[in-house]
Amino acid sequence: MHADGDRNEGSGGGAAGSTLLSKAGEGGKPYADGDPILEVRGLAKHYPLTQGILFKRQIGAVRAVDGVDFDLHAGETLGIVGESGCGKSTVAKMLVHLERPTAGAIRYKGEDVSRLSGRALKAVRRNIQMVFQDPYTSLNPRMTVGDIIGEPYEIHPEVAPKGSRRQKVQDLLDVVGLNPEYINRYPHQFSGGQRQRIGIARGLALNPEIIVADEPVSALDVSVQAQVVNLLDRLQAEFSLSFIFIAHDLSIVRHISDRVGVMYLGRIVEIGTDAEIYDHPTHPYTQALLSAVPVPDPEARAHRERIILHGDVPSPANIPSGCRFRTRCWKAQERCELEVPLLAVPAEFRFSDTPARHDSACHFAEEKHVVPQEGELEIPGRRPVEDVPEPGDDGPGPGDDGSQPGPTKDEAP
Ligand SMILES: Nc1ncnc2c1ncn2[C@@H]1O[C@H](COP(=O)(O)OP(=O)(O)OP(=O)(O)O)[C@@H](O)[C@H]1O
Ligand code: SF4
Ligand SMILES: [Mg+2]
């Protein structure tokens, strides 16, 4: 729960100096409990497939995202998981207006923002910011950290008038656990984890309400991933952020998410609370994904069921009829070829009281326990996230030129 204050109007000026990041005390109408801050309905992105050099004609379409529905509530984290190529990044890009949807609606506080342009779009864009996957390529190597983090203020000068920008950027560096004195350094002087902290600071610069984080830790060393996840966790609580956290790492998603949506070939096939999805999955695809999660306990590992999926993921230019998972599903029947399963609570669980009562796009949904409980999930080489100090030193990161160790707050002279 939080007040929306200056973030929602696209003008009106942010607070000055170190109060830049504080949501507490901001004015505006507070959100009512339970209202989704974001409603995504039937969201689709189809890229045309063309043939011919001079006279291009469309011969088909890559249905990268093909009808995605979900809600995001204020202050919650929605994890989105799925194999490579299932459309996660395309959803993220549409949410932050880097791609225009082919169809569907993105309702931010009730208003469909997917078709906005000009000033109206600019005002809304400020409230939904993105943290990118690769901190090595997403930061301009020729810009100082101060210029990178402060760049959004060029487009939204009302958030930080020129005289206050340096202080605001230094506040942001401090918030993400970096030394504010290094504002004039360049990205190559930082380690991967530190660069991702810079990317996160840039994402926070406009005081957004929603952060869309697209695989924010998958390019980092396993030893650093947990620190960045803990940072995101802390920032969410501190600034009442709503998060969409995209990853293919199911253990990390479980740690950070309140709810989880599982994507397959452009659609969400199952969505529910983290306990519903991890402990009571009803969709065969979710069950197969979970059965592949590493388990540290040898006894639990020996007793868990491993589901091996056969065949490749079909091309998004040639999606199977009926259930799009049917070509790899061990339970597929004739009905699966003929009828598209809707994402809804399956009829068999509609009147039950069990955690299996959540949305699942399967004609023959049934509960299956494939993984041990939460504490037993593990990613090789990583300590449990709770054990990792944060914010902290990711370890000195030599620059790309192999010169100075990357500066962290803790290393400040
Ligand atoms: N501009 C484009 N033109 C044509 N096809 C595209 C374009 N962008 C993405 N695609 C296709 O859309 C599908 C979804 O891509 P997307 O990047 O959203 O997947 P992803 O789930 O983020 O994958 P990964 O886990 O590898 O990042 C892929 O098949 C991809 O090749
Ligand atoms: S609808 Fe049929 S093919 Fe699709 S997941 Fe369910 S059982 Fe498998
Ligand atoms: Mg991606």
UniProtKB/TrEMBL annotation:
The keyword Transferase does not apply. The lineage of its organism: Bacteria, Bacillati, Actinomycetota, Actinomycetes, Kitasatosporales. Residues 38-290 form the ABC transporter domain. Pfam families: ABC_tran, oligo_HPY. PANTHER family: D,D-DIPEPTIDE TRANSPORT ATP-BINDING PROTEIN DDPF-RELATED (PTHR43776:SF7), TRANSPORT ATP-BINDING PROTEIN (PTHR43776). One of its GO terms (molecular function) is ATP binding. This is Dipeptide ABC transporter ATP-binding protein. Coiled coil: none annotated. It comes from Streptomyces durocortorensis. Belongs to the ABC transporter superfamily. Keywords: ATP-binding, Nucleotide-binding, Transport. Residues 1-22, 369-413 are annotated as: Disordered. InterPro entries: AAA+_ATPase, ABC_transp_ATP-bind, ABC_transporter-like_ATP-bd, ABC_transporter-like_CS, Oligopep_ABC_C, P-loop_NTPase.
